[in-house]
Amino acid sequence: MSTTGPLRRSSGEGRLFPLLTGAAAVLVPCLVAGIALVLWRESLLSIREFGFAFWRTSTWDPVAGQFGALPFIWGTLYSSLLALLLSAPVALGIAVFLSDLSPHALRQPLIFLTELLAAIPSIVYGLWGIFVLVPLVRRLEIATPAWLKGVPLFEGPPLGVGLLAASLVLAVMMVPYTASVAREILKAVPSAQREGAYALGATRWEAIRMALFYGRTGIIGAVMLGLGRALGETMAVTMLIGNNPRISLSLFAPQYTMAAVIANEFTEAADPLYLDALVEIGLVLFLITVAINALSRVLVWRVGRERTVRAGRALPAAAV
Amino acid sequence: MTAVRIDTGNRPRATGRAEAEEPMILIEDLMLHYGDKPALKGISMQVPKNRVTAFIGPSGCGKTTLLRCLNRMNDLVDGVRITGRILVGGRDVYDRAMDVTELRKRVGMVFQKSNPFPKSIYDNVAYGPRILGTRSRAALDQAVERSLGSAALWDEVKDRLHESALRLSGGQQQRLCIARALAVEPEVLLMDEPCSALDPIATAKIEELMDELKSRYTIVVVTHNMQQAARASDFTGFLLMGELVEFGETPKIFTTPGDRRTEDYITGRFG
Amino acid sequence: MSWNRLRRKVVSGAVVGFCAAAVVLALIPLGFILFFVIGHGLPALSAAFFTQLPKPVGEPGGGMANAIVGTLILIGLAAGIAVPIGIVSGIYVSEYRKTSLASAVRFSADILNGVPSIVVGLFAYTTAVLPFHRFSAIAGGLALGIMMIPLIVRMTEELLNLVPPTLRDGALALGATRARAVFTVILPAALPGILTGVLVALARIAGETAPLLFTAFNNRFWSTRLDQPIASLTVQVYTYAISPYDEWHRQAWAGATVLIGAILTFSLLARAMTRRLERMHRP
Question: For an interface test with A, which of C23, C32, C105, C142 has the most A Cβ atoms less than 10 Å from its Cβ?
Fold first, then answer.
């Protein structure tokens, strides 16, 4: 019988051990709280100056001292949600394939390849995006028929950079995260569920559908995880989105995200208000991603308590 | 994969009393390998219609493997090789033209541990009819009531059909799984140690059910509980290490077994 | 076959096809990216790349020697921060797993993991750049270290949990204190796995750019001083990539190739090591 358990002091066990290790451990939650605190403190100027209007105004004019962050929220949500729409079906398809359909020999190599997708640094995605994806998107934009160009979704000059290019890259970056977690969820569904469906005469898809239903909370969590990743993505987005603080429905229009504006303008920001405005954007970004990640974690863990999702060894920031 | 072999006469034959009608299930020289390990070695038997047939034998003898061949659930396992022939209702189940989803509609299965779907009681039972295309609410209601009735569960759940199936007790869940299997109106019902996870009272209910159901269905049950086989079945097959040692009417198998090994197992000398 | 059955079969087949297509669809960008980056990067790689400093605009040639060394220094700093804290925290969470502090740590580690890297950069800026009025390698190392901590904590905890309890009980039965049991028996048993995980985490943060933008900043010259801005492979690639100069673009591809090459090597190494470990531990 193992003797691990709550702080228990028997003879031979000093107080030093739990104290020292606990001291290191407590740093982690302190760090999270610390980040929140610091962000809040450093954005006070902006918060006091603009209040909630900060998030309703769309004029971002550092020269005039006018800071309205609505375009960034818009750009972040638009690009991330579009990327979600594109990546979720593909990621789930991959998860289903790897857990239920793949021939045994292919499984490990394919898993390795999906993890590789996650291991590619954001800057490399951005680099590839600038020189390969953007010209492709530009050609796509030029090729849009004139009648389609009237629709607000497609209007604007064919620049290549813009929301579409950024969303496409985001989608590619999201896929391995969602796929990896969703695959673990599907693996955790008891095989008796699928067998029960098969025994009733279900087709392949119908049995898989039952497994997906069983793991539905976890799968939603997996998708949210991908979303959280996309919301905070900086480099690839700022290299492809055009960095223009305007609100537009058009996929072709250059827009701006919260992470991108911080990355671009922070080192240029001279006056305190400008800096604080940028930090305030960082604060809200922090809060949004924390909320989504916390929710995702709860959903994923609901499916099988201590069945920790083993983010594969080479897989970066998936919530473990 | 399908090969008809002529019985060479050394293997144990089905010694059931001559049935006027065709056997429901006819197994001819069935061999099954997991990779290169043999699990079933040349099984031949005839399972009579509208009776309860039990497979008994020590752990690992192949009785569950044999059961799962009857509705081709072994297809789901990697690396399984099967030779021989299985005819259910006169049709070869491994024939290329046989649609496995249709086979599984005709041959239903109940598992060792009940596995209700995480849905309501109603939706569990209605699952089968729904995938078969029944849409009308009235028809589904009817099917659900009829199946739950056949499984002797209707009275207990009729007021809470839309509650989660997972709230039922173990014995009720198993009867729910039986109802679910019956809802697609099979001809054969396979039961893989259906009572092993249940208490004696729940077990008795299920055995009673088997007796009622056999008038409408052919039942094949795998059990490691010999008393259950003796009580509840009409025919019994004894398997040992992948071979069918003996097959016959239950009273005869249990009182005057023909083979020494059967006698040893039944009297508890091993297994 | 009835109409319903036919429809179901067709739908099932379509779904299977879709899933297979999804796999292919995901692999296309992977192949595309690797092909392009390595295709453009390899020709641009030379000995000069690894040994020379960046040349001013207009002059051909030059390299990213300072950036490569800079990245190594930064991940070294990050490891120096994250590994001790991470491992010791991991020990606590594994040893006292039922306590509320352990749950809080696990939860915050997951949260920290999901914090955008740019936000971590903001935090590091405020705590390590602002008070000293300058960008520095230390600030960059701090930012990267913060990002590494949750990875190390979770990994250590998992690996320690995997060590069979009989090992611990054996040590305790021989009269060892809990601390001694952990440090002399349990930790060593998990160490190979932990080291592998550290390598992987290092590879991951070596690819980060955003948190360095206003902490370590960048440096055109050779510098290994910790209290000065320092070049890094990622920021250098970024600077070159968004510039209008072809020569710099070539260098960016080369830098990206080195990055990908390093990460790939680390991943494969880590995978091989985990495979070896799993084989060793299988009963």
Answer: C23
Using alpha carbons, list the distances in angstroms from residue C123 to A41, A264, C92, C120. 11, 17, 26, 5
Pairwise CB contact (< 8 Å): C241 & A127: yes
Contact at 8 Å (CB) between A319 and A251?
Answer: no
- B264: helix, strand or coil: helix
Q: Give B16's DSSP letter.
A: P
Distance from CA of B182 to the nearest CA of A (A): 9
Map residue B27 onto helix, strand or coil: strand
With contacts defined as CB-CB under 8 Å, which chain A residues touch B76? 195, 198
Query: What pTM does this model have?
Result: 0.86
Quote the CA–CA distance of C27 and A75 in Å, as a whole number. 28
pLDDT digits (tens, 9 = 90+) for A95-126: 999 999 998 899 989 998 998 899 999 999 99
Q: Residues 144..163 of C with a Cβ closer than 8 Å to A: which?
A: 146, 149-151, 153-155, 158
pLDDT in tens, A134-179: 999 999 888 888 888 778 888 888 888 999 999 999 999 999 999 9
Q: 3-state DSSP call for residue B132?
A: coil
DSSP code of residue C53: P
Q: In chain C, which residues have their Cβ closer than 8 Å to the Cβ of B99?
A: 1, 5, 9
* Three-state DSSP class for residue B31: strand
Q: What is the pLDDT of residue A319?
A: 30
Radius of gyration of chain C from Cα atoms? 24
Residue closest to B219 by CA, chosen among B250, B240, B265, B246:
B250
Sign of the Cα pseudo-torsion (B203, B208, B210, B213, in order)? negative
Which residues share a beta bridge with B207?
none
- Chain A residue numbers with beta carbons less than 8 Å from the beta carbon of B176 are none
Q: Give the chains touching B; criterion: ≥3 Cβ pairs < 8 Å.
A: A, C
Distance CA A119, CA C37 (A): 14
> Rounded CA gap, A267 and A278, in Å?
11
Please write the tens of the pLDDT for every residue from C189-208: 888 889 888 998 999 999 99
Cα B149 off chain centre by:
20
Structural tokens at position B241? 């290490």
The region that residue C232 occupies, defined by phi over 0 for left and psi between -120 and 50 for alpha, beta otherwise, is beta
Q: Identify the CA nearest to A247 among candidates A82, A70, A77, A83.
A: A70
ipTM: 0.91
Amino acid at A133: L
SS3 call for B46: strand
Task: For residue B184, give both structure tokens.
Answer: 């697609």
Chain A residues with a Cβ under 8 Å from any Cβ in chain B: 104, 190, 192-193, 195-203, 206, 210, 213-214
CA distance B32 to A138: 60
What b/e string do you get for B223-259 counting C-beta neighbours within 10 Å, with b at 16 or more? bbebebbbebbbbbbbbbebbbbbbbbbebbbeebee
Q: Tell me the C-alpha distance between C89 and C85, whole Å.
A: 6
Please classify residue C261 by burial: count the beta carbons closer than 10 Å to its beta carbon, then call 0-12 exposed, 13-18 middle and 19+ buried. middle
Nearest-angstrom CA–CA distance, A252 and A233: 20
At B16 the pLDDT is 46
Using an 8 Å Cβ cutoff, are B144 and B184 in contact?
no
Convert A131-179 into a string of H (helix), E (strand) and C (coil): HHHHHHHHHHHHCCCHHHHCCHHHCCCCCCCCHHHHHHHHHHHHHHHHH
The secondary structure of A197-241 as a DSSP string is: HHHTT--HHHHHHHHHHHTHHHHHHHHHHHHHHHHH--HHHHHHS
Check CB contact under 8 Å for B109 and A199.
yes
Distance CA B124, CA B37 (A): 37
